[in-house]
Amino acid sequence: MAPILIGDLEDSRRLAELAAQSDVLTFDWENISASLLVPLEKLTVIRPPAAALDVSQDRLREKALFARLRIPVAAHAAVDSKDQLLRAIRKLGLPGVLKTRRSGYDGKGQFVMREARHIEEAWARLGTQGLIYEKFQNFSKEVSIVGARSVKGQTVFYPLSANTHDGGILRYSVAPFADLELERAARTYLKRLMNALAYVGVLTIEFFVVGGRLIANEMAPRVHNSGHWTIEGCVTSQFANHLRAICDLPLGSTRPLGHAAMINFLGEMPDRERLLDVEGLAFHDYGKEPRPGRKLGHCTILRSSKKDRDQALVDALKLIDRP
For residue 12, which of 60, 94, 136, 276 sits 20 to 30 Å off, Cα-Cα? Predict the structure, then answer.
């Protein structure tokens, strides 16, 4: 039985106490300080490794790692002053996206600049040390690949999912996204990243599809929202494979059981009874306090055909959005 300790995530004493009582530690949120985990590696095993968490917390370092591994990324530049921002814009052009290097997620900590008049507003909102400017990607799709790597180096991959966002927050995902060429490339890139980091656990890369090729946006060293459909949609879910990986057990099959759609419940919970009228719908309530944009739960729909899945997705979205 794993110990249950309640305390602040940044409480080094409490973390050391947890580590001393544990055979292995893991995390499902990448905003815990990686520096706090490094001392714990002397007390127990941490999977995924703290080094993977550390690099994922800095967009500039993350892109440098991608580039070193020949994983395509958007043209970008470090920005630590307004002058550097102006130079980056002159070099990379507009439109572009100004982002904080650290702590941004779900669309937070970024500003899309489409015209020169947006520069002052972007700097007023984000202007500080530790920014990155990226050339805007005119993408046709946003996709992600979720995979797992075991202690022994066994790797498994879930099918690509196609993701639709609203205000920078994932609204819904559909899977499998059938594109063999993109799937092959995504698996290659994810495997390179896993091997380079000596990774153990579930890892995700989010991509833009630009001109028929993948451009990596960011990695997530944990189970990922776009992979929640695997709970009902695959033989072995991403959660089960994460536990198998960190506990040095054989990884399970990632074979899809049909065509799946996952819809996030954002800001407020929908009418449960209304949604459960949808045949085969699985309803997940996280028990969180509502607030604008917060992920409070999700539902998954599984169908035997893509056409039936897509129609059920449309029907469910209407029910969720109905007052």
Answer: 60
Q: Where in the chain is the domain with CATH 3.30.1490.20?
A: 75-135
**Three-class DSSP labels, 199-212:** CCEEEEEEEEEECC
Backbone angles phi, psi at 199, to 5 degrees: -75, 145
Of 3.40.1280.10, 3.30.470.20, 3.30.930.10, 3.30.565.10, the CATH number of 141-257 is 3.30.470.20
Provide the residue type at 235 as one letter.
V
- The identity of residue 17, as a single letter, is E
- Mean pLDDT over all residues of the chain? 94
Lookup result for tokens 């559909």? 174
pLDDT grade, residue 62 (50/70/90)? very high
CA-to-CA dists, residue 279 to 197, 228, 269, 313, angstroms: 42, 19, 19, 11
pTM attached to this predicted model: 0.94
Please tell me what DSSP assigns to residue 133.
Answer: E
pLDDT score at 128: 78
Residues in CB range of 10: below 8 A, 6 or more apart? 32, 33, 36
- The pLDDT assigned to 106 comes to 59
Checking phi first, is residue 14 left (phi over 0); if not, alpha (psi -120 to 50) or beta?
alpha
CA angle 104, 146, 278 (to 5 degrees): 95
Q: What angle do CA 200, 203, 207 make, to 5 degrees?
A: 155
CATH number among 3.40.50.620, 3.30.1490.20, 3.40.50.10860, 3.40.630.30, domain 75-135? 3.30.1490.20
- Coil/strand/helix, residue 78: strand
